[in-house]
Model the fold of this input.
Amino acid sequence: MTARNRELAYLIVVGALTGLGFASVYIARQSEVSWGSLSYAAFFLGLYLAAHVIARVAVPKADPYLLPMAGFLTAVGLTEIYRLGPTDAFRQGLWIVIAVALFGAALLRLRRDYRLLESYKYLFGLGAIVLLFLPRLPGLGTTVNGARLWVHAGPLEFQPGELAKIFLIVFLAAYLREKREVLAQGRLKDLGPLLLIWGAAMLVLVETNDLGSALLYFGIFLAMLYIATARLSYVAGGLALFAAGGFVADREIAHVHERIVIWLHPWTTTKVFCPLTGTMTLRQDCQSYQLVKSLYSIGSGGFAGTGLGKGTFTTPDGQPLIPYVKTDFIYSALAQELGLIGVSALLLVFMLFVARGMKIALQAEDGFSKLLAAGLTFGFALQTFIIVGGVLRLIPVTGITLPFVSYGGSSVVANFLLLAGLLLVSNRANATQ
Amino acid sequence: MNRQISAVALASLVLLAALIVGTTYWQTWAEAGLAAREDNEIQRVAQFEIRRGLIYAADGKTLLAGRVRKQVGGQTLYFRRYPTHGFASQAIGYSTATRSRAGIEQEENAFLTASNQDLGTFFETLGDKLKGTTITGNNLILNLQVRAQRVAQNALAGKCGAAVALNPTTGAVYVMASSPTYDPNLMEQKGGYAKIQATKAPCHPSAPLLNRATQGLYPPGSTFKTITAAAALDDHVFTARSNFYDPGYCTEYGKHVSNALDQSGGAEAFGNISLFEAYVHSVNAVYCMIGQKLGAARVLEEAKKFGFYAVPPLETPANARSASGLYEKGKLWYPKQPQYDVDPGRLAFGQERMLVTPLQMALVAATVANGGIEMAPHLVKEVRSPGGSLVDRTAPQRLRTVLSPKTAASLRDMMVQVVERGTGTKAQIPGVQVAGKTGTAEICQCSNYDAWFIFFAPAQHPVVAGAVVAESQPNGFGGAISAPIAKEIVQAILPVASKAKP
Done:
């Protein structure tokens, strides 16, 4: 079987699973969901088949598993978003259409040689910085949940950090390919750029108030630097620098400190000061409300979960139980409805995606391709770890999205571009072999 | 570069594997702990997804707690409705979305939500879960009798007080009334809680949520003479015929403790009188002397045999039941040296710092009625599955053996005479021999008294025993105020009870 036929077969499996998911939601929630919802499944199968046709034309030799896996993750997310709020699912659906269109455009435009991106590396670097600082602009950026990660322009909401991540990886892949020999020597004067990027990450931390975003960008940089130079001392030094920066941020930035306090002590037995209301309450009723409610959601899922559409996300008087459940906390919704079995399977798909991505990096011929594929894959893995780890209280909670699954246009678009990048590298590696 | 890529790949997979470990922790190890947290709304909502079991009165037909269906956020939730709007509200309690639960609704929540550890219920619930249908809780059928409970509530309306009536041989609670009462449906409404708290009553605070039958603490007054007499007779220190001289008062610590006032306004004085007659006419001076002879420790010991200093068992939350006994500064008091710390004479006729619950005094009457054996009181007759099959039936349970049959018989004869020709004549029912004891407890340096009556009937083959207390009645004698209420309750129960017997 050729790679593309294999991809087609898996996509049909994903389409069937999507249909099953929507059918479960329909059965569980007939009172407010119509049979029409099942057309979602058919529509998305059609959309993925279109993506598949483009892949057939543009990247015939590329890895056949990535597109079905991305489709699966998107479908799981969309099903859950649909279950939480059918109108949001419609908007998310539109974003997926846009994302697939951009994915197709990127594949077609770069199918001959994506390495031309290398020559625009500084443009990408500059683009990443501009994007990162967009939420800072007055009238454009908004503070959500204490962190400045969003841009509002009319009806459009956008998290530019998602796209900045892709730009940063392209820049780093090109830059490190060029400078890797020099950097590998480990001379003190060559450490400038390292410190510069550390400074930039810290600046991101200060500007966005978001420890997770800073960790994501800096982590991607360290991993790619390590791949390029093979020097573990860079990783150790970088982590130490980041820890130092984080320590200072904990002491100096109230929001960062709060996140760490919530992480360490989400429950209190005595009343503590609540800055949101200015009164004394238990911490679980104030700052750590979201995290605690999310943990309850995960816990109540238990081993097998409640089943799609049967979880509890509203109080008896109809109030939503977990703030931002569709975006940052979609994992806790999935954990309640799919249970340990379901979300473990979901995480295994994430792991498989990472394994395929890294395999592409190993197979690629040239340094830029290797760095690009490994960077994109590691970014994907680290982002998943940071958001789910936050939800699970392994690390302080942050406001970034779960790739492909969370509600949010920027996230879906960025991740489909990431997928396009991996498929392009894979196609080239397999074609030249 | 491939070596480094492999290392980064491994690190990535380890990070993601850690997420599976983390999820496993929260969904297995920590699950029970999370579910038990009281701010866990999911658990609370989950209980509303269950069609909560219904609660019926003893006839099995009168619905006391029903349910309504509501759509909330796409979920079908079931909320409580109480069609009787305040029938034994304090005993049954409530179950609301906002203020959680009380009473039987709290204590029997496992049955009502079908989460009880019963094999039949387990399989039924499992079947519902697998089919995805709504779980339905088990129904409760109480021992509370509609007519008798209504009679008691109506008789107490406008007063503060309580009435308890139960079957002395089985412990089945027929009546548990606490006044003022409230409409449990208000708990669910906006401002309803404040409305309940603002209920007007002749006592302050009116506290309608308080179950006065099990939580209300009152000086027992002369009803306590039953316990003093029991101690005297059981010890063979005295017999019913033992003679005393009543000068109208008893001297304690050099001071006169007077009898109740007679018509002319002076203390009654009976002169030569037996223990038996002193009980019938409720002569304080004589019981004061008996108390002094027995000693406070012995009287307290007898009270403990009846269950004082222990919380009586019942299907309501433990914090809604109080123990009877001596109270000091609002707390149950265990005197270290009763012979010095407690005034034996005043204790003997139910004053001192003795405080009792109506339920405890009902149990005292029931113990005498049942030949000295105290049965555990219970509100729930049986639990039935939604399909109607029996899940659980409360079997009569012997709580303790308190009196010898002989002592119990003597006390019964004394109590019969109280109603026949003593202080409790207002409880007489034509054709039925009623036994009882009045109590008129001092609560202040004023002319208001807590009016008591404890009773059982028919005296020879009792089917009902109980206690009635009306708080702070002006010039209120137990015989005048509470005995007629007891009579009405007994009349309401007797035809039902005699029909139930083969």
User: Anything to note?
Assistant: The longest strand of chain B covers residues 464-474. Chain B touches chain A through 52 residues (CB under 8 Å). The radius of gyration of chain B is 27 Å. DSSP finds 18 helices and 20 strands in chain B.
